[in-house]
Amino acid sequence: MTTPEGQAGAPDAAAGLRIREAVRAVLLTPGHEVLLVRFDFPNTGLRWAMPGGGLEPGETHLDALHRELAEEVGLADPPAGVHVWDRLHVIPFIDGRWDGQRERFFLVSTERFEPAPHLTWPELNAEYVFELRWWHVDEITDGLPFVPADMAGHLRRLIRHGPPNSPVQVGI
User: Fold this and answer.
1) pLDDT, tens digit, for every residue of 45-87?
2) What single-letter DSSP state applies at residue 5?
3) Residue 66 lies in a domain
4) Which of 170, 116, 115 is nearest to 148 (CA)?
5) How many domains does the structure of the chain reveal?
6) 3-state SS of 119-131?
7) With contact defined as beta carbons under 8 Å apart, do 56 and 72 qualify?
8) Is residue 67 part of a domain?
9) What is the pLDDT of residues 12-23, one digit of tens each?
10) pLDDT (tens digit, 9 = 90+) per residue, 106-122?
11) Whole domain around residue 115: which residue ranges?
C-alpha cells in the first residue's frame, strides 16, 4: 500500500493480498520511440515492458523511478515526469513473497540515447532483464508479448492527446 507520501508500505490489507509497489518509465522520444526492456521469466516467458521496478523500503515513487532508470538504462537525473498510467497485476511472484504488483507509469520525455545500465548484465539477468531496445510506436503490434497488452493503443493515445488529467488504468 502507498502511504500519503508515496512510499512503499504494508500489504494491501483491503484485498488481503501482498501487493508490491512499483514504478515504470514511459521513455518517449519526439520521434515516437519508446525504450523497452525484455524480461524473460521462468514461469511466464518473454515480456517487453517499460523499464522500472519495485520500491525499496522508505522510497518514494519518484525516488524509485530515478534509481531504476539509472540501474536499468543508465539514465541519470531524468525529469520527474507525469504520472500517466496505473496497472495492477495479481499473479504470484517467482519467490512467493508477493501476490501481485501495482505499478505507476511516469511519462519521461527524452531524446534517444544509447542505454548504458549501471548494473552489470549478470545483475540484470538475475532480475530477468535480457535486452534493452528502442521501439517505434508503429512496431508495437498485437500478438507480441507487451506489458501492458494494449501498449500500442495507450502510447498512441498518449502521443495524440498528451498526458491525461488523471492516471489511466491500463489493464494487464
Assistant:
1) 899 999 999 999 999 999 999 999 999 999 998 887 899 999 9
2) T
3) yes
4) 170
5) 1
6) CCHHHHHHCCEEE
7) no
8) yes
9) 444 588 899 999
10) 999 999 999 999 999 99
11) 19-169
Span 18-44, mean pLDDT?
A: 94
Q: Which pLDDT score, from 0 to 100, does residue 7 have? A: 40
Provide the CATH number for the domain around residue 113. Answer: 3.90.79.10
Q: Are 115 and 35 in contact (CB under 8 A)?
A: yes
Whether the ω angle into residue 117 lies within 30 degrees of 0, i.e. cis, is no
10, part of any domain: no
Contact by Cβ (8 Å): 27, 113: no
Residue 143 backbone class (left: φ over 0; alpha: ψ -120 to 50; beta: rest): left
The one-letter code for the residue type at 23 is V
In a domain, 46, yes or no: yes
* CA torsion angle 89 64 140 151 (round to 10): 40
Cell of 168: 489511466
Q: For residue 37, what pLDDT is reported?
A: 98
